[in-house]
Write a structure and sequence with these properties.
Helix content: 40-55%
Low-confidence stretches: 101-106
Number of helices: 6
Number of domains: 1
Largest sheet: 4 strands, parallel
Strand content: 5-15%
Shape: globular
CATH class: Alpha Beta
Structural class: alpha/beta
Radius of gyration: 12 Å
Order of helices and strands: EHEHHEHEHH
CATH architecture: 3-Layer(aba) Sandwich
CATH topology: Rossmann fold
Distance between the termini: 24 Å
Number of strands: 4
């Protein structure tokens, strides 16, 4: 099975990306791409173009998906509901393609 690749929006704590990278997970963060502050639809298009699941704490991405925007998956965590450790554990779970995509990470 192919390993999932993630693209983190600017609101996901850097510590989550760092923890996942230590576990060998392929993570790209907005800050590393020079795309900070770009509109959500452009961020989602970038993630899709690079076959990465969008990881976000912004519900606007769920709205974009509901409106039919193409995507490789969206992992959403409501702000303040999960610790850094919980996010790392959930996103590094091998079942994540099924349990974390399209806003099903709750």
């Amino acid at each position: 099975m192919e390993r999932i690749k993630f693209y983190f929006d600017e609101h996901v704590p850097q510590a989550v990306a760092d923890g996942l990278r230590r576990r060998g997970v392929d993570v790209l963060v907005v800050q590393d791409t020079g795309r900070r502050g770009e509109p959500d639809d452009e961020q989602l298009a970038f993630a899709t173009q690079h076959e990465r699941v969008m990881v976000t704490m912004g519900s606007d991405f769920l709205i974009l998906a509901a409106q039919g925007s193409s995507h490789a998956g969206i992992a959403y965590a409501k702000p303040g509901t999960r610790s850094v450790g919980q996010l790392i554990q959930k996103l590094s779970d091998p079942r994540c393609p099924d349990s974390c995509r399209d806003g099903k990470s709750h």
